[in-house]
Amino acid sequence: MIQRNKQIIPYALVAFENKVLHYVRGKKAGEQRLVAKGSIGIGGHMNDTDESLFAWTRRLTDWESSVK
Q: 45-67, pLDDT tens digit by residue?
């Protein structure tokens, strides 16, 4: 019997008052199918080094903001 584990992939939506963060992915997006596509949040797999959901969010926002 093959055991298949599923992993929850968190997704963070950033909102303040009546505004929601929106951005368009650049040419250096990790997945080419997402280049020039809009997004209203960030998401991805958690690493073993992420101590919490907050640490995961910090890592991803740091990474997303460094990709130009």
A: 777 787 787 787 777 777 656 65
